[in-house]
Amino acid sequence: MNKAAFHGEELYRALRDRRTVAPLIARDPSLTIADAYAISLDALARRRADGERVVGKKIGVTSKAVQDMLGVHQPDFGFLTDRMWVPNVDGVAEIDIAARGLIQPRAEAEIAFILKSQLVGPGVTAADVIAATQSIAPCFEIVDSRIADWQIGIVDTVADNASCGVFVIGDARADAGAHDLPALHVTVTKNGQPLSEGYGAAVQGSPAAAVAWLANTLGAYGVTLDAGDVILSGSLVPLAPAVAGDVFEMVLHGIGGCTARFV
Predict the structure, then answer these.
(1) CA 43, CA 188: separation in Å to the nearest integer?
(2) How many domains in the chain?
(3) 110 in the Ramachandran plot: left (φ > 0), alpha (ψ -120 to 50) or beta?
């Protein structure tokens, strides 16, 4: 069994069994980002064999606050599936931690891009992203790690599907071209108390620039961002641990809000 298959099966089983594994890079320092991506694709293939369907892609670790918190100083990237998408019911998404297979979840407020046309890297610009976007929306990504105690480096997080758990998209939709994306302001509360705030500029200067980076990075692996895809552009705020009973609310000012309740 090659490295991709070995670690891909390991991470897939960790996901299904709700347990963590020791950091990959600590056990095999020779692993590269290309190896990590191959591992991620192997684990994804196993999920698709279970019936999961890819509905989008994500970029993570884009802001300095998150990079400093995790000790990972470059963005990561991964895939979103239909089983990772938690629906809103009356404006609230209820996230059953056990049922969703989450191990050590953390919530982060983001801007989701919903595409109307394909983006193929390299050479994609922020302007291309805005032109290809049907709408943007407030979003919580619930990141999670199958790596023990969040002891991740860039290889570990890319291999582990960019440490993605589930995601929630608020009901509001807006025209990306009608807003100054770097100036978009988000405020977040946890259990009714102010938690954090941030601006679109936190993610590589602009969320559209972050999505362009994702298109160009994935393009090097022959992967496109497709019409209908949901693209998570990275957290605008530090990520925060979540446990059963917690309620997170975000407001993307001038656009709308999103609520995630953990049970």
Answers:
(1) 32
(2) 1
(3) beta
